[in-house]
Every structure is written in C-alpha cells, then in structure tokens.
Amino acid sequence: MKNTVLVAVAAVGVLLSCENKESVSQTPESNAEITIMSLDPGHFHAGLIHKSMYPQVDSTVYVFAPEGAELQDYMNRMSGYNNREDAPTAWNLQVSTGDDYLDKMISSKPGNVMMVAGKNDRKIDYISAAVNNGIHVYADKPLVINKDGFKKLLDAFAQAEQNDLLLYDIMTERFEISTILQRELSMDPAVFGELEKGTLENPAITKESIHHFFKYVSGSPLIRPDWFFDTDIEGTGIVDVTTHLVDLIQWEAFPEVILDTTDVEMLTAKLWPTVMDLEQFRLVTGKSEFPGFLRKNVTNDKLSVNSNGEMNYKLKGVHAKVSVIWNYQAPEGAADTHYSMMRGTKANLIIQQGEAEDYVATLYVELLDGQDEALLSLVKKKLQGRFPGLDLQKTGESKYKVIIPEEYHNGHEAHFAQVTEKYLEYFTQGNMPAWEVPNMIVKYHTTTEALTKASEN
After folding, report:
1. Of 74, 111, 309, 389, which one has the fewest beta carbons inside 10 Å?
2. Are residues 316 and 437 in the same domain?
C-alpha cells in the first residue's frame, strides 16, 4: 500500500496522521522562495541541512522515500532538531512513501528544490530526473561514483543550463576555518610566494583525511545503513570522501580559475580495504548478520570494504596527492582527522589535526625566506579584521602556529548550514560564479579517472 503521511514535527512532539494524497496537497501556498523536496534521504547529511532554518526556505519539507529504517532515522533527526531546548527548529514534514517515490515527486512537484543524500549509485539518475523536469538540485557528495555516472552528469549539467536550473553539490569543507586561512595565506605572494610545481614523490599540495565507520553525530551513535558498506552502492574510497579533497585542491591552488578536464593528468591511484568482523558490523548497522548482497565481500566471517584510496595527479602541471583512510573507530578522545600541505616558493602551509593538536585542525606556517614581517602584517592588519582574535605564536626559528579562536571551530555539522546559505545566495542571485560548474565537472572527472587508474592495478 502506498500512503502519504502528514508529519508535523512540532516542538511539542511528533504527530503522525494518515492522509490521502488529495488532502495533503491542500497545504496553504507559501511565499517562501524555496520549498525543499527531500528524495530518499538515506544518509544522515539529508537531515543535517535542516539543523538550522533559513528565511528563504519554507518550513514544510516534502519527503518522498520508501518506507523503512532510513526514513525513520531521518524523521527522528528532524524531530530532534525541533524538540531541542537550544534554538529549536520548526520543520513540518509531508511524507509520501512507496516504491514509486521518484515518480510521485516528479508528478506532484510540490517544491522547487530537490535535496538528495543517500545511495550514491542511483543519485545521478535522481538528479537527471529532477533537472529534466524543471527542478533545482542540492545534492550531497558524491554526485557520481564511476565513469558511466560521469557521462550522465555531463548531460545533467547541460540540461540544467538549458532549463536555467541550479545543480550544486554540498562542499562543506570549504567552510573549515583552518582551510579558509590556508587558502588566504597562499594567495599572498609576499608570504607564500608561488605554489611549487612539485613532483610525484614530493607533491606541491597534499590532502589526507582519516574517517571512522563508528562515530557520534548530534550526540548519538551513528547507525549506518548496511548498503553503506557495499562499494557498488556507496562508491569506493577513491570516489567518495576524496570528492571533498579534490575540491579543496582546486579551490585553494587555483582560486576562481575556470578549469578543464584537459588540465588533469592522473599518474597513480590505488584502493585497499578496511576489514571488520560481524560484531563490529552489528554495532555500526544494528544488523545481526551480513546481508546477502555483501556476502561477495565476506571471507572467513570478515567483511572487506574497499573504503581506502589514494591518487597522485597533476592539475595544470601542479603535482597533487589525495588520500582517504577509513578505520573502524577512532581511539578514545580522537576523531576524524585532516592533514594538508601547500608548498610555496617562500613558505609551507601545513594543517595538522593529531594528538598534539588535541584533534583540532591547526594551521602552521613554515617560512623559507625570512618574511616574518610580511606574515605578521598579513595576519594583524588584514585577516584580524575579518577574523577578530586571530593571532600568531612562534614555535620555532621560522615556524608559526596560527592561533584561531575557538568560536571559529564550529564543526562539521555547522558547515551544512553555511554551505546551504551559499546555495541560497546563488539561488537568489539566479546564478553561480562562472567557475563553479566547470570545476565540479573537473572534480568528478578527477575522481572517476582515479577509479579507472586504480582498477587497472
């Protein structure tokens, strides 16, 4: 039976009532600029964009999804935001369930923006259906996980342009303060000089991150769907989280430059697995056994997930390295970590997030040309105006630690509101910067080229 359920996720609790399709469609018209339709919200990121409310966005969210635990998790997350004591939200959900959820969204079209975060193997088909039917798209990464998907993405961008639609992926890491400052410092020739070209063995720019299957989100243990561990659905480690790192390399090394796929030369790439036993799988999924579709990757009662990846490539002649590692769980007191190095002719800019930094992303500046005064001037005369409280601490003869006030470390979850606000800004303007779409294309060309190269090995 295919039902439409009106869900008023109010501050006083969750109200569930079954309604027929006609009665649900009678919701009063809104004057808000944007009404979101959330399609098949199988990943917790679908809920994180609603941790805040936005003046341009209608408080009613139309949800089209199959019934099941993933939909319930999404609804519970939204209810949690509405019921929290500190700055509660006021989202109202109208939920249409059934296997024909995509057809329902397209035929009824109660909103103008589709938000999608879930199974990555079918995401590009959702995106194509949306833009072919006049619907803007706001999508969690990655948009595609292989070359076949990349070909469809090119068509989707062409269709979006023809229909004057906004198709955008959620790049939260551009809002991490240490990365913002690394980019700012790299754009000052007096401090950084020019970006080195580097070599395969010693890249000019490196991005590495470590993630964990078992973690806490919004204070609760994250239960991941079992399909998350099927790389045919989720994508391998070289096309998933790497999307963020490739994006940052483009964003920092060539700020606001329009890139082309011909600017990319893939040199080496590899994949390797993370292995977990059944008890670990049970803790992170809530499932008592490995499902049939994962048996292809189970040996001796242990599941291998090709979640780790590394690529070395050149972008406009600059050597870059990207590496992503997934461990099962972080050590006590630790968390996901990020490492980044940008090598300039006058300085190296290094982000570290290890035990020495209390697992807080910390930016260091290694001066190579004795330009201390230039660095002090940049931070104290320019950057302090934008980031009050920013300072420098000398940690060696030519090395400084950038002191970043705690309030700027607002965390991964807060970045979803920031990137959503950027999307809303583009929506209101009616366009994006000229470099955004070409560089999204180059980004997914890079990740899928890396997968092809890794598969050859």
Report:
1. 389
2. yes
pTM value? 0.91
Please give the average per-residue pLDDT across 359-380, as a whole number.
Answer: 96
Which candidate, 430, 383, 429, 444, places its Cα nearest to that of 178? 383
Least confident residue range of 88-102, 347-361, 364-378: 347-361
Cα 440 to its chain centre, rounded Å, is 13
Element (H, E) at 79: helix 69-83
- Above pLDDT 70, what percent of the chain? 93
Taking phi over 0 as left and psi of -120 to 50 as alpha, with beta for the rest, 326 belongs to beta
Torsion of CA 354, 356, 358, 364, to 10 degrees: -80
- Residue ending a domain, among 169, 199, 224, is 169
Q: How far apart are CA 307 and CA 236, in angstroms?
A: 5
Tally of domains within the chain? 2
pLDDT band at 364 (very low <50, low <70, confident <90, very high): very high
CB-side neighbour CA atoms (13 Å) of 380: 8
Two tokens, residue 50? 């609603």
